[in-house]
């Protein structure tokens, strides 16, 4: 156990309970969506971890630790599946949870049963004895398996988000509000936290005989409770957005050689030069297809086959060229670099900087400096 710290206990309890409140709010959002159910449960499971620490130590101070061993509610094996199915729901609008999917939660049921057994109670208490009993190693094994479960599902969920982001680029020229990038950060942070926590505690246990436990234990759970509360808040304010996802090309189509459609390229270049549709930040594939009198899927295929780019990269390449032209014109001093970017169709500084560096291998300021040096 650790020394009691009313201040840190209070902070952990406040943020954990606030996260649980956000969990309830997410669950009550209208209309009721499957994604919100999984997100609410995910936030609840995360909040239970730091809250358990407070409860166990408070009960210890009142010599009621034996009571906690019967009400332990840490649910490590539920975190991964909830994260996975939440990610599936927000990236696949037509996803439906089926009976076969319940198999993902079998380890969670076994974990719940395990916490109700004497093996857990003896093993958890044995962690604080000079010589740990065999049951303690069983308990530690359960904890490590829970960590592995979280890491595996986190990796899969992160991969799904990255794939979804690429799919969006086939239809949208602006994906910042559609790619669920906000979720990538907590996935990385939580996965990193559990790895760091398990390694740190094991090193302290076996190398330093728990000498430094007082210094890192509670501060780390303060951090976890704050991050969990933030996740609950972001999940609650997150708006549902309808997206269009085109079916990816088959392998046969990708490897099939198709001669360039010069007529299409001429029409596309003429449209871009005369009407400059890329200046509209909200431009999407359907809007451009309408201007070219084509169907969206047909246009997407034409762009991929003739431009060796997806829709997102194509439109942003035109925006970058327009930006470069503006810096070389008399309009250069009318706006800041970001102002010019916005005039060219960008509406995100980070996206503009990323795309510009990807295309030119320079930052916007470096490019401007090179122009000034050339003009001297």
UniProtKB/TrEMBL annotation:
Keywords annotated in UniProt: DNA-binding, Membrane, Transcription, Transcription regulation, Transmembrane, Transmembrane helix
SUPFAM superfamilies given in the database record: Homeodomain-like
Residue span, HTH araC/xylS-type domain: 269-370
Domain of life the protein comes from: Bacteria
PROSITE patterns according to UniProt: HTH_ARAC_FAMILY_2
UniProt cross-references to InterPro entries, sorted A to Z: Homeodomain-like_sf, HTH_AraC
Residues passing through the membrane, by range: 6-27, 34-55, 67-86, 102-123, 143-162, 182-200, 215-233
Protein name in the entry: Helix-turn-helix domain-containing protein
Native organism: Maribacter flavus
